[in-house]
């Protein structure tokens, strides 16, 4: 796969995923693409602080562990209603624990946690909450003792190591609700009493030194403080639709057997989509839960493929009123776009790459002349071998192509592309695609077509 293709797939992911974190007002935001000394005080000690793949990683194999402090002590004081979010992962579980928290520091810089998620061999993963009453530490901004103060508490979280999680603290005036993975469970793991302290500092890591050198490693994807609407962005399911030739079923393709729709898989030598799938998973999406790859019988007429895709989406059990985001390549993009035209209310975004929105001249060459591909590559070789296997008695290769891959007729161009002795000739029509193109403007608000990757395509046949 070329660097150019990888860039396109990553651009797809940026378009699909960036909207997940679009808040009305953001007071603080760090996605840890690099070390930002304007936002954090990095205390490495004898551990390590690294930046890789868009996240911060803290780890140590010595008696001390890094700790990172936020520099702005007013992060939670911009307005009464605010949300603090951090996406994190404990990659393992060792004797010495560390974590993420918000709270205060004393005159020597030692942290006192008001809320913290902690992971160690003894406690598994826990939420620690601590009411800072004036009579104890005097780290609270209220004049009088806090109402309903109940001291230190521990809540077991039961979350898995090696997976991304989101700690979310919602502040309403001076009352707090704490969530972990709210998109999966919107019941708070802790709700505070009223009139609590307002934390001043974000902590990542562990300030302690000494003891064992086997530490739990911590990764942080982002830290954000934003306005208090308390509505998580809707995470649409993402469906990837590969292109022509990228799906395979031996029984159907070789022996013309009728097979179930779910028996189609990715063609083994097709690796074009690995970067896209990898990028989705790097952003925390789980296959067959958050995103799906739809493999299908690409030989059928286009309208039948669209119908098959409709049945596939219906079978995912997506709730009424929810939407999906579609990413389609080549023929898959054309299917995604047409299905969106017929089901606009069910689609958030549809993005296509290199899709023949107005048909392709190469489809005419295959339909009318049995020419399959200009290149010597695995796809062309396999298709030519399959066509030879499908030939019936007294059938020429053009007839074989037309009976085996009916899709080609629906990919004929909707524009002029034939010439005889330099004069334009009226080509065979493509009524289905032409009619769909006539109404495509109805989905322009959610449709992005990336139409080239720097390669010249054939425009005329003379």
From TrEMBL:
InterPro entries attached to this UniProt entry: AB_hydrolase_fold, LACT/PDAT_acylTrfase
First and last residue of the signal peptide: 1-24
Keyword Isomerase attributed: no
A GO term for molecular function: O-acyltransferase activity
SUPFAM superfamilies for this protein: alpha/beta-Hydrolases
GO biological process: lipid metabolic process
PROSITE patterns xref list: PROKAR_LIPOPROTEIN (PS51257)
A Pfam family matched in the record: LCAT
Keywords assigned: Signal
Keyword Methyltransferase included in the entry's annotation: no
Name recorded for this polypeptide: Uncharacterized protein
Organism: Candidatus Shapirobacteria bacterium CG_4_10_14_0_2_um_filter_40_12
